[in-house]
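[Automated response] Your request has been received and processed.

Submitted sequence:
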Amino acid sequence: MWRIITLAVLLLVSSCATTGPSVTDTEPQNLGTEEVARALDIWEDFRQDEKEQLLKRSLEINPNPITYHLLGQLYLGAQRYEEAKNAYSEATKRDSSFARGFFELGQLGLWHLPDQPREEALANLRQAFALDPANPHYGLFLADQLRWDENTLPEAVEVFETLASPRQGDPMVFIAYAQFLLDTDNRSKAQEILNRAKVLTDLSGNLYHSGAILSPLYRSDRLDEAEFFLSRLESSGEQDYWLYVGVGGELFNQGYFAQAYRLLVRALDLQNPLEGEHQFYLGLGEFLIDGSTNHLETFVSMDETSLYATVAQFVLAQSSNSPDTQARYQAMVQRIESEWGPVNEKMDYVPWLAAVISSSGI
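Generated structure:
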């Protein structure tokens, strides 16, 4: 019975966005709020094959882009990428204004279809943004793909400018645009955009916005403003572990070790020890700030095999004047060069690695 009602709910949802037989033409009538809520609630209880059968049955009754999109999502989750592509494509054929379908096709092509030309994926992303230029998710993702090729770099600027038009008020758009401008050495324009980002972030009071704006503020040497948002985040009382390690990890990787350490310690209040590389950041940050190794020792007790562990083992050997310090150093360099490439080049854009090697005196 609940499979019938769930099918009816699928039809009801899809009929809101497309023409075709209504749910009352094909399934039990008078679905109340409780039935709809129950049908959606038990959706996750169905097996993969049952979900697929329900969606296909719904499409037999009412072929529409929404349900094709849901089928594509189901295939994507099952790593059935070609079938996902076919479902998303069918959704866009049924409705050429269905921006979400074009966006999913673009992402799928970039991430999961290595034989598909990159330009085809970009064309789908461009179409999604053209259909819904006010959607920051579509625009920011497209700009991030365009920015790495000098041939499409001007187009990335155009996308950011469209997103940052006066009618838009999403702080993340201006924060991302400011980061982009700093990356491309347009510091004057970056400060203009960062000013707008700061106002919007302050007004929103959103802690994720406060975390995201820290990097461009520090990069612009706007230290007092950065401290304001860092303190807001640090003292918020928010119980979100991933907020603190996410922002802390980003700051650490950009070389703001003391600021990152403050947020990672805040995360430690929620989970001790931290997970994986975040415990490494915490430990290395502690070492670089005051020479202590407690958190780094905890990390090594958790992980003895990763690249980060190789770095941590060298730092611990160095701090204790161990006779195998030189050997640990050579092991670290060899590991980095085998996985990341030449150490000298990597040091140029991994500040913590530069700090480790600089502190070694080797």
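Summary generated for your ticket: Residues 45 and 195 are 48 Å apart (CA to CA). Residues 18-31 have pLDDT under 50 and may be disordered.
If you did not submit this request, please reply to this message.
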